[in-house]
Design a protein that fits this description.
399 residues, alpha/beta, TIM Barrel, Non-ribosomal Peptide Synthetase Peptidyl Carrier Protein, Chain A, 2 domains, 8-stranded parallel barrel, two-stranded antiparallel ribbon, globular
Length: 399
């Protein structure tokens, strides 16, 4: 067996000499950088998408939208699918378990011109989703998965439809290769794989070899890789190791929206912002800009400032910001209060290096996935599974 360090050094050397990747094409959409912002609940709203776009190029996807809520025109949902005029191309991710409802939701998006790209979520590992047969649990029911994707792709027409999924439910119930072939046959424009199972949640290390295997299996449309991309160098290495056509970035950009500028410079073919000097002053300015955009998005200073609170730890990870000040930032209620607190920082403090790098967000621990009773007994839909799926479609939370 080759020495692991030697293998990594070879990959690193190769990644620095490779020519820039070709532009990523998802149907009629061409991206200057083969980079996609992963949908994250409560994070990838219009404000965060706009902020990321200010730093780099790519496709910036909405929070996960429940199809039943969209079809019923839930007020919160209709607000979540709106895009700022600066957002081009516009992208919406849908979650659903009923083929007819998913199809109807796609038709609303297309016929009412709400987006230029639609993604279907088959990767969510959250128990409240998998417990009802949705997210990463659904591809186990092969015929149901096929019907949803086929009907959605037909409803999408000229608007490119993509699929995001996980390896499967657990190591004994992998679904990604079969699901990839089905999606490809249904006419999707790309498939994305988070290289973990639902049981792994976000723990351990993503299995990039699965992305390579999917790339060998799905050959007519782009294959995108997701999992453990904390830096532009990670993205380059994933593409070099797996042959994937692009990357999907989630937790790595939490508190670091300028990561998309790094990615554009590393992987892109078009304009990218100049490299940043991530001093504490730079980070404070980004945090303040994010808060400002949230206030605009929510049309409420109080609501926007309450939402920015959860981003404090991510932005200031590794920086010399004391516990008392962090606690005060995590309870702000106005932009003026934010300004006063940021003014007390040592804005000249340099980038702290490794202390600010690496994993962001909660990884969780491996756990047995929550599934409907008898879900794994068959690849077909039975009565119990149908009941669970019906309950899932009652979710009208708008996200």
């Amino acid at each position: 067996m080759p020495d692991a360090l030697a293998v990594w050094e070879n990959v690193k050397d190769m990644s620095t000499t490779l020519a820039p990747p070709a532009p990523l094409r998802i149907g009629p959409i061409t991206l200057d950088a083969p980079v996609v912002l992963a949908p994250m609940a409560g994070i990838t709203n219009t404000a965060f998408r706009r902020l990321c776009r200010e730093y780099g190029a790519g496709l910036y996807v909405s929070e996960m939208i429940t199809t039943r809520a969209l079809v019923e025109r839930n007020a919160t949902t209709m607000r979540l699918i709106r895009h700022h005029e600066s957002e081009t191309p516009r992208s919406i991710q849908l979650y659903g378990v009923d083929p007819a409802t998913v199809e109807a939701a796609v038709r609303i998006i297309v016929e009412e011109d709400h987006a230029d790209h639609v993604d279907l979520n088959f990767g969510c590992p959250v128990p409240k989703v998998t417990r009802k047969g949705g997210g990463a649990a659904l591809p186990w029911k092969t015929d149901l998965f096929r019907e949803i994707v086929e009907r959605a792709a037909k409803a999408a027409g000229a608007v490119p439809l993509t699929v995001k999924m996980r390896k499967g439910i657990d190591s004994d119930h992998l679904t990604y290769l079969e699901a990839g072939r089905i999606a490809e046959g249904a006419g999707v424009a790309a498939v994305a794989l988070h290289a973990r199972t639902a049981s792994e949640f976000y723990s351990g290390h993503a299995d990039w070899s699965a992305i390579a295997t999917l790339k060998e299996t799905v050959t007519s449309v782009p294959v995108l890789g997701n999992g453990d991309i904390w830096s532009a160098e990670d993205a380059r290495r994933m593409m070099a190791e797996t042959g994937c056509d692009g990357v999907v970035v989630g937790r790595g950009c939490l508190g670091r929206p300028w990561l998309f500028g790094d990615l554009a410079r590393e992987l892109g073919t078009g304009h990218a912002a100049d490299p940043v000097d991530a001093t504490l002053g730079f980070v404070a300015a980004a945090f303040r800009r994010h808060a400002e955009l949230l206030v605009e998005f929510f049309e409420s200073e109080d609501r926007g400032c309450r939402d920015i609170r959860k981003h404090v730890a991510w932005y200031f990870k590794g920086y010399p910001v004391g516990g008392d000040l962090r606690a005060k930032l995590a309870t702000v209620s106005s932009l003026e209060e934010i300004d006063e607190l940021l003014a007390t920082l040592d804005l000249e403090a340099p980038y702290p290096g490794a202390a600010a790098e690496g994993q962001r967000g909660r990884a969780g621990t491996p756990k047995r996935p929550a599934l409907p009773d008898g879900w794994l007994d068959s690849r077909e839909i039975g009565h119990a599974a149908s009941t669970a799926l019906a309950d899932a479609e009652l979710d009208t939370s708008g996200g």
